[in-house]
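Protocol step 4 of 6: record predicted structures for both targets in the notebook before any analysis. Target 1:
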Amino acid sequence: MTTKRNEPDVQSSVDEQDSSTDHDTKDSTVEQVPSSDSVTFTLSLPVAVRETPEHEAAVAIDDVAVTAHHVDPAAMATTTVAFAPESVVTIPPESVPEAAVIPELPPADRPTTRRGRQRTEVRTTPETATMLTAERLINQGKKNRQPAPEGFLQELVYAATFHLVNLGDSYRVRERKALEARVTKTFVGGTRFVPVLTRKGGVGKTTITALLGMALADTREDRIIAIDANPDRGTLAERIDKQTRATVRDVVMRAESLHTFSEFQTVVSRDETRLDVLASDTDPHVSEAFDEDDYNVVADMAERFYSVAITDCGTGIVHSVMRATLQRADSIVIVSGGSVDEARLASETLTWLESNGHEDLVKNAVVAINTATQGTNLVKLEEIEAHFKSRVREIVRVPYDPSLATGSVVHYRDLNKLTKAAATELAAVVMDGLPAVRVN
């Protein structure tokens, strides 16, 4: 360190230094370099030496200088360090840090999905089909989630709250679903036969048969067939788009060769609702030969492939076909018009059935009142309904529809809402009267 001062100051500094030399330690020395302009001090400070702790010295390896050209490659392969027993240092437990917990990795034979979840273990033995149960396969969290509601206000609230608020279906939707649940009733033990009959022609019996069959086929998932058993040249097949010219006579003649449903489909026509229609004989001379035995052959074929068979009966109530039809009937539908004579003849049909041992069918019967007939606006339909309610189980009123009044092909999708609602109600009340389980 060098400092420039004036001469008087230098002399006083030297005097002070001389007076303090007696008190300095032996490690510090002061040298004065004679100069007229500067004074230089040289300080010798003690060097700080780091002492190695005992636990480090115990495991330390002595540095040994090695000459490069004397290095043995074999000796460099391994290095052996010997520890003396007295050099082992015991570290107190409190100074040892806690070991980190590392999660166990999944085994190599259990792959994970892209979301990181482990897949279900694969059994070593093949599984049977019975092990694929709903409890095992269906996600219970998604299964218990309520479906989206139906109805304008309900759907609006459900969408506005990002599916958090579900008000449920509207009242009309709940009524419709309840009606459809009645139509989709499950049956066990064979085909259910439902004849549609009346003693008077022109009241819409064939139209009611088509509506009932279409409503059932449109709602249910199983197979529905409508059989035209009218011996007087029925027109049921003309209510749908015909796809074949086969009739009940072809079924009787080919009964032994119709083994599968695919083969039976060649003799029936199917409409847009999946209703199969079997036409009656078109030749009036041949139709007289369609008797009780022939109907039983057709009914046996229908019983092999269908859940519900609706029979469009003719006006000949004493015909032998009617006897076979009623023997297989599980419930009946009586069609009445809106006029006085039509209602009276429908009531007389019930009386004939009661007189011929079919009281149970009458009590379980359903009366369909076709309001499209002439004179409906002039009579009191409430009085007609009150009369039939005293004799049968249910009454259903079918409204007027221009699509039905033409007497041509019926397109179920084009019917008015009230007409389709009445057809669904008719199907529901008919299904209510059919036994769920039949014991043969």
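Target 2:
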Amino acid sequence: MREQLFDAAERVLLRDGPNALTSRAVTTEAGCAKGVLRRRFAGFDAFLAELVLDRIGRIEARSAALHDSTGGVADNLTGALTALFESVAHGPQ
């Protein structure tokens, strides 16, 4: 559920902009009750902080993988960007 909420937040942010990023918009996009977000996080600010930390972790992991890769530059960047924006590409679950 945590990833589902994070992915929904990314879609709202990219589609509608930062002013539209609310707890209601996230839970609606995720297709779950608003209480789900409240039960899993101390508040919406805590949710946003966890989202940022999660996405930073993803970027760091992809960066390390790129450094260790022996593939071509174009293939490596395509793979990295696809993985980074995977949640946006798949839409609501």
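Step 5 preliminary note on target 2. The chain has one domain: 2-85. The chain is about 75% helix and 0% strand.
Proceed to step 6 after PI sign-off.
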